[in-house]
Input
Amino acid sequence: MIGIVGIGAAGGNIADLAFEYGIPAIAMNFSERDLESLDSIEQRLTLIGSEGVGKNRDEAINLMVDKNWEMALKFVKENFSSPSTEIIMVCFSAGGGSGGGIGPMLSDLLGQEMEDKTIVAVPILPDTTEALVHQVNALYVTEELSRQDLCVLPIDNEQVKKRNPNAGKAKIFRETNETFVNLITSLPEYTDRHSKHGVLDRKDLRTIFSTKGIASVSSANITKLNEGQADVSNEGITEAIKKSWENAIFAPLEMQTVSKAGIIYEGPLDLFTVDSAQVFSSFKGGEPTHLFEGTYEGDHAKVTTILAGMPYYSTRLNVIEEKIEAQQKITEELPALEAAYESKLKLPKASPKKPLARNKKKAINSILDKYQNR
Ligand SMILES: Nc1nc2c(ncn2[C@@H]2O[C@H](COP(=O)(O)OP(=O)(O)OP(=O)(O)O)[C@@H](O)[C@H]2O)c(=O)[nH]1
Ligand SMILES: [Mg+2]
Output
């Protein structure tokens, strides 16, 4: 039901893991070497024009517009046109050149060209210690995504990092990627399961993920039941759900409004109920206008929540902006860096960019123009 398109190194890693877990997944990258390093994924597309764009988003965008967009679209259509794929998640690092350059544009093109699918963009935000170039790219990516009529599920590397401040990148990536893929695997499993007590079906899941704005998914294990320690009062369950939001791998929530949500309860029946008014009381706008609920019998009590239609992660972006501003200030105060070099020789000017070959579809042209003529 869900198909994953991975772009660049980070997107490719997630797609590769998803494929291992049995989710249909494909990967594309300028770097053939990165594609070769993936373990299991079968469908890999090498984009042409460069062996990697070294975090340079503009280069990725230009190469995509000039040489690759048609091939990339065809690749996705060939793999995901069948009706069994209903939701396409486009995963890419917001900080990378390839992922950050192509991700927003490809999501836009897919929304235009595969109207019968629900497109979800999954950008991966850099943790706050990463280099400035990643942070700047992430701001541009967020701007481009926010202008689209698109559901965005932003993974945030800072979330796992802040709980493991001394952990290396490999551990942070592994934990983040595994948590994401586990969640994405579990959702369609629920939609395919029967329950006498109400299910969250495929249509519900699609409706949630078709909502413009920010989305988040998280699971709360109501553990230690055998030890009699679980607090299954309404307050206890509400707390557990709110904790799962805070500890999610996705960008911190703004707690303003949430327009659509799903709550999936799995566990022994009649153990507790989820009081949705209480759960959503920490949002300024209160409960979502659309709430989809599923209840499934199982041994271990677990509540999974899917939230959608929330505002962009501006508190998180402020941290990035502050970091960039601080760096800009340092740069301004360094006089040596201001001295530009200009040759006394009359050097030949760079040749002007030739106009794009026109495509017959007007809508596609306008999307391509939008990214190239920013
Ligand atoms: N969660 C997660 N983040 C990753 C992973 N690999 C890289 N990143 C993050 O992605 C960013 C780097 O982007 P990459 O995906 O390596 O870049 P790219 O899209 O291949 O683009 P270029 O290499 O610049 O052409 C950094 O912010 C990393 O923290 C991964 O497997 N998982
Ligand atoms: Mg790369």
